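Ticket #4471: structure output looks truncated?

Reporter: J.K.
Steps to reproduce: submitted the chain below (797 residues) through the standard prediction queue, then opened the result file.
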Amino acid sequence: MSNSAQAEFTVRQPPVTAANEFTRLALLTLDEPYSKAQEALAASEDALSTAGLPPDVYDRALLALSSAVFARPDLLSHTSVSSLITVFRSPCLPAGTFRLAGEVMNFLLTTPVGARAADETIGLLAQPNLSPEVYKALLESLRHAVTWAKEPLDLESLLALAELEHLAGHRDCLLQDIVERCLYRAGESATAGALTRMARLYGDSGSSKYWLYYVGARTDFRPDVRELASRLSQGRFSLHESIARRLGSERQRILVVQNINDGQGDEIVRTVPLIQALLDFNPALEIVLLTRRVYLYAHPRLTTIPFKDRDRIDDLLRQRFDAVIDFFERTVLEVNHDPDLEQNIQEYVQQHRPFLFVSSTKGHNHFVYEQIQVDSLPVAQSLGLDRHRVENIYETTFRLIAELGLPLRCGEDPPATDWVLAGLPWSDAEAAWHELTLHNIQRRPVALLNPFGGAEPLKGCVERQIDKLSAMIRQLIRDHFYVVLLPNGTPWGTASLAAEAVTRLEPHEQIHVVVGPDPACGSEAEAHPVPGAPALTYPDRVVRMGTYFIRFADLIVPVEGWMVHAAYCLGKKYRMLMMPYSYPDRWHPYVVTRHQQIALGLLQCAGQSPEEESTAPPIPEQPRKFILLFLLREFGNIGDTRALELLRRAAKSEDRDLRQAAVISLGKLKTAEVEQDLISLLQDSFRGVRADAASALLEMQEQHGLRSGDLPREYLSAFVASGQELRDWAAVVRIGEAARPALELALQDDDPVVRREALQVKRVLDFKANLRRRPPSLRERLIRNRVLRRLFGRSHR
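Returned output as attached by the reporter:
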């Protein structure tokens, strides 16, 4: 870049002010946590406790406090909480400061001072005459606590909040997102009085019947509470009698078509709770399930058929079924296992008119029901089952179960009949489990640990985190568990990596851990017979065996993913590991007990050394990742070039979310050296990083004007159009050949949806390019000939 071009960029050196001193302390804390965190913590607590300071000082003090929470949570005390509470009591601060303070409160809720933070949050919400922004921020913190806090929030205290008049405008949020979930966690400690108060607060709202139904289904609630819940929901479900009369007795047959090419966990969520409820409803009822994953299911009245067995499916569709449940994506046909089969299913439904027909698409992973017909009467919209009541992928199916009057298996309860997963006797699985636990001579309870991600590496532990994995195993052993450590058949979750984690334990610890079978260590060619399913390949057999291991174990410790859903559907206690790419709480099991929770303490005991995090590109697990995202964002908003090295380090992370946060903040610095960083990030594997880098470069061109050597605007615009959340593929087509580099990278993107869309757009561009390259026809050649044009008086237009 020329000297004149460099001169157009201004490197801002901030003046020495109180606000900038906090920025300096925040950065030093991240670089030198053992020497600087205490200073940053003390200074930030002092500033936040002082009234009358400028808002930007409070904002930077919150930044310094967050750095201390990230680097040294062990230093926090009740003073850290009380200083933050002081900010919320300040009447004249802007909404932005309250929002920042709310985010920092979220961070404190997951630290050793979390219980104090939760108590102070509830106490402050109970006070009237605070800023609306304060209530909004603190309610969001309370919702965060429901998911992340180590100890359940007190149900009675939350009900008292919901009864307060000054929070009446937030009552729906309080009840559905916070109080309900705490009620499920309370279980046997919930009282009939609390239930009565909740029912009164809901008033005439139709949604109260659902949580009453869930409570009535859970056997760990006290008998008087369950009886009250059943009585209060009685007569509020219009379909119960007709469903019971038609499907509740005698031999009924139901066809379930799971055609959506979901992840394994998604399939479990879609199918297992509903199939379990139907099988428990009528002991003579039988289900035929069409699925690619025949290895998952094992129930004496459930027959699984793979999509490749078309002769058998064709014969099936000549038989009678009393109900059909169809999972099929209608808009993007490529995400189905067998798109052609759907026409046959629809023809069957039209011809035979089953008593119950249920249809659900994939959409944007909504897990709702677009069509439900009971005796040919459409009811999905009138019952609200085509939309969410709360943001959770289980809850709409639970409402469908409630509306149909089926028995709901939830929490740690067993089913009324056999399990849908691992519900058939299997001697091979029992023998394998006996062999794995043979050396558990102390007869410790067994923890099944699945620490590796399935869909991609950062859904779980990676090789760089081997010491973290060893620390988690060590903690489980200290908690008096015998640990069965499962590989998962992926290149990043191998048996050798699992064994390496074990070798880092002390000899007296190693005797309490064993590595399970690896799905990758066998042939896919050989077929293995199993009960209740077609013969399976070795990898599928091992996964099926894993479902039995879940049933046999005392505690399941999986990363967020399919095994959590399998554990929940088998009524197991679990501690879920939230790794960098783990999905948020809307993807977690619903109506859980206090023994089915996030493994917050287990992750914290295995924390990465601050020294390593100050040098290597970071990949923190959740919830620490949220703190780092906050810090990266706020350093960018400040626009301080002292954060450049931190942002560059984050831009090299394996975690695409951190890279994206870093590139957004790098773009706000607008220096010459940052421009080169942004150009390099146009080659990133994630669409969002490429789009934000291109956007920043375009903004710099707008600010400084187009200079010699700048990347063409069309070239950059193609990265923006193909990488933003709502892709603008039409713009990519309009840009044409200049969009090829962006399109080629989109074809290799981390996101399979982007890859699929980009392939379709590439076909359009290829078609247009071929049109330009094809030889002219005879007519076109004649028209272009000057002599012929003069001769016949025709002009080429």
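Triage note (M.O.): checked the attachment and the full token line is present. The first strand starts at residue 253 and ends at 258.
Status: closed, working as intended.
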